[in-house]
Amino acid sequence: MSDIQKIGSAGSVESNDCLVTISASDHLEVEIQSIVDAFFHDQIEKVVLDTLKEKGLNNVKVSLQDKGALDYTIKARLLTAIERMEAK
Amino acid sequence: MNNKVNRFVPEGYRPFVSSSDYQNKERKLIKEKKQNNKIVFLKDIKEVFDYLNIQSGQTISFHHHLRNGDYVQNMVSQEVLRRDLKDLHYAPSAIFPSNAILADLIKNGNVTNVDTNYLNGPVSDVIGEGYLKGMLVMNTHGGRPRKIESGELPIDVAFIATPTVDKNGNGYGGIGKAACGSLGYAISDLMYAKKVVLVTDNLVDSLDRIELDKKYVDVVLVVDSIGDPKGIVSGTTKITKDPIGLKIANMTAKLLDEIGLIKDGMSMQTGAGGTSLAVASYVKNIMLEKGIKGSFASGGITGYFVDMQKKGLFDELRDVQCFDIDAVESYNNNPHHIGMSASKYANPYDDPVVDYLDVVILGATEIDKDFNVNVTTDSYGKIIGGSGGHSDTAHGAKVSIITTNLIKSRMPIIKDHVTTVTTPGEDIDILVCERGIAINPKRKDLLEKLKNSKLPIKTIDELYELAHSITGEPKKLNLSKEVIGVVEYRDGTVIDSLYRK
Asked: Residue B314: which domain range?
């Protein structure tokens, strides 16, 4: 299976949660849709980028649909999505 | 110019001074409407416009007792569109999503000024986008009758949706296809509008009880339907199941008990939200345990309070608006379930019921370190509601309590400054959230009573820091400074301005 089809997701679109989808890509791309985007966009992006860095992932596409999740929720969802992607 | 809560007040409006400043002024009363006994019965809204010669530039009022099921405001709006009348001033006591057609009237310039106590849905969107040519004025439930009776809001024609009308022209809300119970918000319109139209879908020979006296009525319009019962009352209003809401409610009841408010003769009001009802349920348990009998519960009445009254926990219910089917049924049959006008409920000059409340439980979209509360806009400045009776009850009640989550979907509810001031902090005594309780420092008496309490009493600054340590620091937004309206305090002064999106 080629890298490009690897995909994993975790979370939900319930209040205070987020749905994270991550897939292999030829470059780094982070897409954020959030109900609190105007207030927390930079912080959400930072959690995503820091977590990817920790895991040494550079060539992935992350999309995040956020319903007001706190940082630890975002990180936990992303880590699970990464595990699911890598299990494929 | 800025007012005493440091908010901008546009030219031509009086700035807010303090919540008790109304005491320095005399009540102003215009003459009640001319009473003629000639009532005409019509069957078509077109005939009403012709008969009353409704013209561009006039002020037309409505009540919101049929809430999201109301057809009457929409029926009138259709006719305004058909005739293409311009520059009307609409003064409904509230505007709901089902009143969407008003958005078209605003865009077309048919309606150019709006006075209301509560606003959400499509009409809020177009006003927020700047389409209203004149001003949006957000009143309170007590401020509106004060404004009408003083002549500050002269009404040319009041269209009063009336679930049942008798052949003499008297009206009643407790029965009929569109029964909604108390018609409290319509009473000032009835007494002071130049012309009064009762709109009904249930004409009967006679009525045992009357809320709207025929002596004020000019026209009875009989139509097929005045509203959709499904949108008028909810089936049942229920206690929350959310564990955070229950925790807040439980703490609130314990707090009331420690302050010594749960005692014989007590009076209280809560909203109809799930957490408010949960507070009522915990208070009920304490009352039953201690054998306490209260004097009255007021407000919009729900089945929950109907049940408490039936169990003997309150002597009376004082009801300006029934929230659910059980409340309507009780209003119609229970002699201790008493209707009241919005003026008697909350008009500062009418010795109102709110002044006799021991405790009121209220909500907040935002609260700030000065205890100012916003229930008018969200944190983007979009209008999502309005005071209703918020600032009236907060002022009247001996103890006013805000119950809210500390954080809602990552947004900390405690701000440095609320986006919009609806109710001034001087009238907010206590904030209860899941992480603790903050007492307004000016209530030294309450702090003294609670000094040995095991409840988690904190300062509002501590709760603020706690929330922000969990959520992170929200970015400050640069909101527009283009004024589209004002928030009028109950005394007619402006407590804050409303801005374009």
From this structure: 243-478
